[in-house]
Amino acid sequence: MTNAAELADDILANWPYPPKGGWTADHLDRLPLDGPNGEPEFFIRVELIDGALVFRSPQTRFHERMVSSLRIGLSGQAPAVFSVVGGMDLWLDAHSRTCPDVMVIDAVAGADLDRTSYQAEEVYLVVEVVSPESAHRDRVVKPPKYARSGISHFWRVEKKENQLVVYVFELDPATCAYGLVKIDRGRVAVDLPFPVDIAFGNAG
């Protein structure tokens, strides 16, 4: 007789097929790293949005370059109470667990090297670098979820006509929604969550 744990393991071995009741955020820590067919090259980063698995496409050099610049710039100017991470999961609720490009988090949470994800209350800033396949999620789907989770600051980074554009948003706690604070081009300079000024140069 198959017990519940064995059944769960069998389901996760074929992870594109949802288990009974749908996918939940804690399932992501148990997804096989080599994909459903045992092929290491199959693996790509997975997010969970409203109970649906979202497979992220390979990223462009522009995307990698911007993420690297943001991490280096934020890390170099962040006070000691903050840590800067990239490619780490953000646990929003039982059915949504995203993987922002960059996050500014609480330094105590960042010091735990065994962590695979962070809770919204540990996060001060989320940054998404928009790519063609992620544009709808980064512009429309994710920001309201981040806002409703209480994350105070959100940046959306895009390339427009070979120029880098940073949309800076801040949470209105009365409405639990983001308001656009400013639009920076070629750099980002803000006072919150801490004073930072990052110049990116040409986006090409």
Automatic annotation (TrEMBL):
Coiled-coil residues: none
Transmembrane segments: none
Signal peptide range: none
Gene3D superfamilies: tt1808, chain A
InterPro entries: Nuclease_put_TT1808, Restrct_endonuc-II-like, Uma2
One Pfam family, short name: Uma2
Annotated ranges, domain Putative restriction endonuclease: 44-183
Record-given protein name: Putative restriction endonuclease domain-containing protein
Source organism of the structure: Acrocarpospora macrocephala
Taxonomic lineage: Bacteria, Bacillati, Actinomycetota, Actinomycetes, Streptosporangiales
